[in-house]
Amino acid sequence: MSGPLLLFDVPWLLYRAHFALPSSIKGADGEPIGALLGTVRTILAEIEEHDPAAVCCAFGSEEATHRVELLPAYHAHRDPMPDALRHRWDQAQDLCAAFGWAVRDGGDLEADDVIGTLSGRRSSHGGRSVVVTADRDLMACVDERTVVRRPAGRGPGLVTIDVDGVQEQLGVRPDQVTDLIALRGDQSDGIPGVPGIGAKTAARLLARHGDLEGVLRAAGAEGPDGEPGGDPVHGDGLTPRLAGTLREHAADARRDHAVALLHDLDVDAVPDGRTDRAGGADAAEALGMARLAKELRGG
């Protein structure tokens, strides 16, 4: 069996490494280089563990234009990117390419959309994917051929989340993850969700009613095109009061679903290929990561 497609959420890796590694680690230009060093080391460690057939480094906008247009609060609470990180961000694609890893950029969309497109495409053709990310919305990509590798907690290690793992962590199936976000919200992205609905209530409602539209129908909300709502179906967490809240916030919930939904992109397929350790070593050395370059050359 050929190895999986290994997909990396590089924007997350860069942020993670920038804040995890000391700023005293400098590059050839005298500026902190931890973002690039930590990112490359994580990618190399995951390659060592999974022996992939292909590697893709996904990039994209920090916040997709259409998501901000739908929800101005999307990512608005986040601090601006530090200048030191921006400097390395602009170098990351060339560094990844030097290792022979495919680089795919979502343009006005996000790395998540790139990853969702490529993992879904590979799964539909019978291939396997391993997605390395911390983003909850990418758990929607998990299926029998796709797993997510994400932080286990505050430590540096990653754990593998399969279909059962999504159910265990979130209380829903992977195909219900976007519905869950629409109901409970996602503070990390600035998605508010429906007032008064937490993770457990949202999961319970979805277990009974299937998806967001099923929950809204059970609450007696109008349909997405203004169709009159029916009588509420109370029970399994859907109280009269909560049904009223869902009717009041139905349009907001549908908006939040649209914000969280991954978009399919017209992006080039990722060819099989091995890591170019020599090319990566040259690029690392040029940036001032001498120890990494030495390791890549077997020293």
Automatic annotation (TrEMBL):
GO molecular function: 5'-3' exonuclease activity; 5'-flap endonuclease activity; DNA binding
Record GO biological process: DNA replication, Okazaki fragment processing
Keyword flag Nuclease: yes
CDD domains reported for this sequence: H3TH_53EXO (cd09898), PIN_53EXO (cd09859)
Start and end residues of each stretch annotated as Disordered: 218-238
InterPro entries for the chain: 5-3_exonucl_a-hlix_arch_N, 5-3_exonuclease, 5-3_exonuclease_C_sf, DNA_polI_H3TH, FEN, HhH2, PIN-like_dom_sf
5'-3' exonuclease domain sequence ranges: 3-280
SUPFAM superfamilies found in the cross-reference section: 5' to 3' exonuclease, C-terminal subdomain (SSF47807), PIN domain-like (SSF88723)
Record's keyword terms, sorted: DNA-binding, Hydrolase, Nuclease
Any Pfam family matching the protein: 5_3_exonuc
PANTHER family in alphabetical order: 5'-3' EXONUCLEASE FAMILY PROTEIN, FLAP ENDONUCLEASE XNI
Protein name: Unannotated protein
Organism name: freshwater metagenome
